[in-house]
Amino acid sequence: MDAQMLKGKVAVITGASYGMGQTMAELFADEGAAVVITARGRKKLDAVVNGIQARGGKAIGVVADVCSSEDTEKVFASALKEFGDVDILINNAGIGEQKLIDETDDDWMRMVMDTNLGGPMRYIREALKIFLPKNEGVIINVSSVNGARPFCGATYTSTKGALNTLTKNVAMRLIDTNIRCNAIAPGATITPAHLANKAGEQPGGAKMLEYSGHFVYFPGPECQAIDQAYACLYLASKMGRAVRGQVLQVCNGAFL
Length: 256
Known about the structure:
By secondary structure, the chain is α/β, with parallel strands linked by helices. The chain is built from 8 helices and 9 strands. It has helices at residues 19-30, 42-54, 69-83, 106-134, 154-173, 192-198, 207-212, 225-236, and strands at 10-13, 34-39, 58-63, 88-91, 137-142, 179-186, 189-190, 223-224, 247-250.
């Protein structure tokens, strides 16, 4: 009996050259999906693709910026050309930051908003061109506990709150279809971005944490990237077939 949960499916995963996106791509490939992964740089992207293929998985990498509508169209065209279909979309690409509102200029605000919110909107719009005609598909947005408890940078937290709202809005639009839209909201998860944040190396440094630290409690161990990937697997597989419009918080109980 084949135990692969995503056998025959095709998944597009943005921002998958490292961290949570890479782990999601590797898990989905292990579970039988052909994965189409994106990133802005070729070297790390190729390394992930090569690793998946070395284990017998199916994968291609497409260099793309989620802020570009042309790149977005290219990603889906590449998926259709290589694998003939798209069944799952994971909007993982994003920018983390810790800039105080009084240190946030317009150019920075627009860039983070266009990446963290505009990117998912572009990819959902493009995915629906494939999902709606066949009346089937899965959309998973990678939000953050910051969507409900905004302790990081002003623009970052605002985009994650908006992404939660977008998730529900899209789920409502698709309620009479077989297309599901949900989100995961990771808590502190050991990735290069999280480690940089703890070291005060993200844009904005650690100043915001001096204020938000009064409202944040970390009682348990940090999550691993695989914990977030497992949550996506649940939502993408038949296990999550009755789940719509939900934001699944994966935080080891740190943000209850």
